[in-house]
Amino acid sequence: MTVIPAVRYGLTVAALAVLTTGCGLAAELEREADPERTGAHPKPKASATGAPPPAVAATPAPTTPQGCPATGVTVSTGMVNAAMGLRAMPVTLTNCGAREQRLNGYPDVRVRDVNRARMDVTVLKGPEPITTLDDPGPHPVTLKPGESARSVFVWRYSAVDAASRSGSGVYVEIGPDAGADRQTVEPEGGLDIGDTGLLGTTAWQKVTD
Asked: For labelling, which of 37, 40, 101, 144 has a CA lying 20 to 30 Å from the CA of 118?
């Protein structure tokens, strides 16, 4: 007869008890889950609203206001000032978009006649030798939405045929700087630049008034 030591016997009994209890617990859980013994498993309950949890919306990017070009800026020209053959015209660039605009230098300009053909006009960075005029020179300009910068265009009058408008810069394409998209404006009265062939500009300067 084999004698089981007391400690070993106790462990054996405890193990049998755990196995027995475990089987009974598993059976009880099965009865609770499926009292009819159909073998089907309960479906997870839907949320109180029956709808999936709302997705977290991404922060929308700033959009260009309606009526503002995709470039985010608009260009306009002011009244031409004339004095003894010298002409001066303010040009204003306004940030109409939702982001900051940065400038540093002179506008990029093309002059076209009444037929939209490009005129032989040399655009100068600075007003000289056409005239002596304060020019801030290239410097960083940051425009927040709604803010503006200004440049002044200067040229010398040359005879223009009033009927055909020959020699008149009817359409002027202006961009913030070289390589940027240009906008076409029609200055009142046009640029009576004729065959003088020179157009001076001043660097962009922030409008503070």
From this structure: 101
